[in-house]
Amino acid sequence: MIELNQVSVAFWGVKAIDGLTASLSAPVCGLIGPNGAGKTTLVNLLSGLVSAAEGTVHVQGTPLLGMKPIARVRFGVRRSFQTEQVVEDLSVWDNVRAVLDHVPHERANLQAQLAEILAYTGLSSVATRPGQQLNLFQRRMVEVAKALVGKPKLLLFDEPGAGLTEQESQLLRAAIVGIPARFGAQVLLIDHDVDLIKATCTQTLVMDFGRRLALGPTAEVLEDPDVRRAYLGT
Ligand SMILES: Nc1ncnc2c1ncn2[C@@H]1O[C@H](COP(=O)(O)OP(=O)(O)OP(=O)(O)O)[C@@H](O)[C@H]1O
């Protein structure tokens, strides 16, 4: 559960987030909105890369805003970036294993835990391949795999579907939808691909000019006339 209460973030006087209040409770939540709506700023706020001028943020009841970014990672807030952060000369296995240096984890069966994550993300067959030999889809799945190491509570995925083929996008969809049941983490997904949001998210927040334009079941939100006008251009 993510609870945002009267949250504002400003850059040089421009409010990127402006008095945002929302409770996101679905296992997989969508976050959409036009360019510049404040979506990435919200993800940056949740992961600790920007500070709020006002308001409070709770994840599973724990206040986040006083926590340093690394403490949030240990707490279980994880994110992917629009540009994949894969170490080119490390194997897929070592890229994923390196996350263990930063997060609490069970010491027993470490190899099995990592193997399960690679199998879940479809990366077992390329486990020994160095980052530089991976295609775009495999790099995206390495990002997902890294986010699953340890016991994540909240996964923030920022446009993970950008540039993927339809078939790759479907595989990504299946992986994202299964995360809450398999790994016990909530997912917040930002994407401009409305089909991906429809297929994966039961609840969606729409932002516009840093404010909440709509929040509710995804199908209802996408039919909302204000959302259609502001975001879908109809
Ligand atoms: N570091 C920054 N310094 C100044 N202004 C910023 C900064 N980051 C974001 N902004 C501004 O804040 C507003 C929200 O930006 P943000 O990147 O969060 O939007 P977005 O919804 O993620 O957009 P997009 O869909 O294009 O990625 C924009 O007006 C942007 O120019």
Features:
4-stranded antiparallel beta sheet; alpha/beta; membrane; binds adenosine-5'-triphosphate; P-loop_NTPase; 234 residues; ATP hydrolysis activity; 10 strands
Describe the structure concisely.
This protein has 234 residues and is of the alpha/beta class. Helices cover 36% and strands 26% of the residues.
Helix/strand layout:
Layout: E1 2-11, E2 14-24, E3 28-32, H1 39-47, E4 54-59, E5 62-63, H2 69-75, E6 77-79, H3 92-97, H4 110-120, H5 136-148, E7 154-158, H6 166-183, E8 186-190, H7 194-200, E9 203-208, E10 211-217, H8 218-223, H9 225-232
Parallel strand pairs: 3-8, 3-9, 6-7, 7-8
Antiparallel strand pairs: 1-2, 1-4, 4-5, 9-10
The structure holds adenosine-5'-triphosphate (ATP).
Adenosine-5'-triphosphate is lined by residues 11, 14, 16, 33, 35-41.
